[in-house]
Structure formats: C-alpha cells, structure tokens
C-alpha cells in the first residue's frame, strides 16, 4: 500500500531516495525506484512471484512488478528491498489488476498483504519448462509435443496404424477380443495376478 508521494526524511535510506510514495505524474520506473523498499516482509514474500502496489487515496492498484529477489535492506534490520521489474501493460498480471480496485484481502491497515491468484505462471504442457499465462502451450509447442509422441511410435503412418489399433481395442473392449495371428517364432507367457487378472505376453524368439 502506497501513500501519496512525500519527501523522504531518512538520511540513511539504502535506496538513497529523496521521495517515496505514489505520484501519478512520475514514470513507472521512478515510482518503482521510489517504492520497492524498504518494507517489513516475512519469509512468505520470497515465495511470491509478483508485487502489486495500491494507492491508499484511491484504493486502486497502480503498479505491478515481477519479483526477482527479496534482499536485506543495508543498515535496516528486518527491512527488505524488492528486486525486479515493473510489468508492461500487456502482461496478464498487469491486465488483471492494475487500474482495478485494491483486492479485498489488502483492504486492511497492514501495509503489506498476500493474496492467492491463479493469474499467470504455469508451465507449458510440452514439458519444456517455459512459463505461460494463457492456454496450455507456448505457441507451436503443441506441435513439438505431438511429434515427439509420433516419433516414439515411428513414422506418421506407423503412428496412425498404432493409434487406430489402440482405439479399436479400447472401443471393442476386452469382452469380445478379436482373433490374433502370430506369424513369428516365440513363446507366450501367461501370468495370473494376485487379483485374478490374466496377462498374456508374446515374447519373440531371438533372431
Ligand atoms: Zn513448451
């Protein structure tokens, strides 16, 4: 929660600020530099990804930033400085909160509150580890994910035949199994599980 911009009266300010607080006339960079510290922040702050700044006069979120690190404020025991970057206007977290009302959980006297949000920050569905904010994949990665699976089976025709066979198998169900012809030397291994399940495995002979 930010107050209106006012002159800093701390000669030992580790950020060497002359002002702190929110000024709508200042640039976002200036407002960020004036307000990223120093705060009383608990251990939980280190697990947060973003910080929102509300302007107390308007009960409105005025700035959002990505948290890169929470560091100790030099010379200020128990106080912390946030390292990071103000978010651009097209960022989903910015779009969700900036310009909107201060979230209910922050409408208390405590200058710092924590809120749960499902906006942004889940991993791409292909497993590459990139963070995404909408949908399930980084653009194009669904193709990568699909082709990786095709490659595990073989060529595209091989994949299609395998897929159709698996689907046909699932749909006809185990109750009416079709006949299978094995034109290969090998042996059949039959296992009966402890739960009564029966498993038959064909093991081809060594070439
Ligand atoms: Zn991906």
Question: What features would you describe in this structure?
Answer:
By secondary structure, the chain is an alpha+beta fold. The chain folds into two domains: 6-117, no CATH class; 121-174, no CATH class. 21% of the residues lie in helices and 26% in strands. It is built from four helices and ten strands, in the order E-E-H-E-E-E-E-H-E-E-H-H-E-E. It has helices at residues 28-35, 92-97, 141-153, 156-172; strands at 6-7, 19-20, 37-40, 50-55, 60-72, 79-86, 122-123, 131-132, 186-192, 198-204. The N and C termini lie far apart (74 Å). It binds zinc ion. Residues 124, 126, 128, 130, 137-138, 141 line the site of zinc ion.
Question: Which features would summarize this protein structure in a list?
Answer:
elongated, binds zinc ion, 4 helices, 2 domains, 207 residues, single chain, alpha+beta
What is the residue-mean pLDDT, rounded to a whole number?
A: 86
Q: How far is the first residue's CA from the last residue's CA?
A: 74 Å
- Which percent band covers the strand fraction? 25-35%
- Structural class based on helices, strands and sheet pairing: alpha+beta
Share of helical residues: 10-25%
